[in-house]
Write a structure and sequence with these properties.
By secondary structure, the protein is an alpha+beta fold. It is 51% helix and 9% strand.
Length: 225
C-alpha cells in the first residue's frame, strides 16, 4: 500500500504541473489526475473511517455522504448535457457533409475553417491546404509569415470550391476582421498576423451564400469576377 501511496503523492503534483504549463484547459489534460486522486481519496476515506470507532461517530459521516452524492449527481448531469451538445454537433457535421456531397463534386477541394476537418473525410472532399487545422496560424510565437504564404500558395494552386466557417462563435471568421474576443489576454489587435493575410485573401475571393444548422456554419463560394 505504501509504495502505491508514494507514487500517487509524488505523481499528482507532477501531473498538475504538466497540465498547467500550456495555460489551456482542455479536458484531456486532467485525465492523468484521476489515478493518483483515486488512490489518495480512497486512502483518506479508509483512514477517516478507521478513526471513528463507534456507530454513533460514524453516523456523523452521513451528511457528508449525501453531499458527495449530490455533487456526483450534478457532475453527471453536466456530463449528460455535454453529450447532448455533442449529439447536436454530430448532426450538424452530418448535415454539412451531406451538403458538400450534394453541392460539390468528388474532385472539388473544400476548406473547413476551424477544427472540423473530419467533415472533409465524411464528405470525401479533400482539403486544399496542409494546415487543415488552422490553429498554427493563430498561435502567437509559432505562426509566421512563411506559414501564411504557404497557405495562400496552396489556395491559389487549388482554389477550394467551398469554404465553410466551422469555427466556434468566439473564434474569428476566415473572412472577417479579428474580433477582440478572439484575442488572448494582453494581446493587442493587429493587422499583420499571419492569419490576417489568409483572411484578406479569402475576403477578396469568396462571399457568403448559405448557413448550415443551429450553430450557423457559414458557407462561402467563390465570387464571380
Amino acid at each position: 500500500m505504501r509504495p502505491l501511496l508514494a507514487v500517487a503523492a509524488v505523481g499528482l503534483p507532477i501531473e498538475v504541473l504538466f497540465a498547467s504549463v500550456s495555460g489551456e484547459n482542455y479536458y484531456h489534460y486532467y485525465y492523468a489526475w484521476l489515478p493518483p486522486l483515486a488512490v489518495l481519496v480512497g486512502y483518506a476515506a479508509w483512514r477517516l473511517w478507521a478513526m471513528l470507532p463507534t456507530p454513533e461517530s460514524r453516523a456523523l459521516l452521513r451528511p457528508w455522504g449525501v453531499a458527495l452524492a449530490l455533487a456526483f449527481g450534478v457532475t453527471t448531469l453536466g456530463l449528460v448535457a455535454d453529450q447532448v451538445r455533442e449529439l447536436r454537433d454530430q448532426r450538424l457535421r452530418a448535415d454539412t457533409a451531406a451538403y458538400l456531397q450534394r453541392e460539390t463534386s468528388p474532385t472539388d477541394a473544400v476548406l473547413m475553417w476551424g477544427a472540423e476537418v473530419g467533415v472533409n473525410w465524411a464528405a470525401d472532399r479533400e482539403s486544399p491546404v496542409r494546415y487543415a487545422y488552422q490553429y498554427a496560424l493563430v498561435t502567437p510565437g509559432y505562426a509566421d509569415a512563411e506559414m501564411a504564404a504557404e497557405f495562400i500558395d496552396d489556395l491559389e494552386r487549388r482554389p477550394p470550391v467551398v469554404v465553410i466557417d466551422a469555427s466556434p462563435a468566439s473564434d474569428p471568421s476566415p473572412v472577417d476582421p479579428i474580433p477582440t474576443i478572439a484575442l488572448r489576454p494582453g494581446e493587442a489587435a493587429t493587422t499583420d498576423r499571419p492569419v490576417d493575410e489568409v483572411r484578406s485573401f479569402l475576403r477578396d475571393r469568396y462571399e457568403a451564400v448559405a448557413e448550415i444548422g443551429k450553430l450557423r456554419w457559414v458557407v462561402y463560394r467563390q465570387r464571380d469576377h
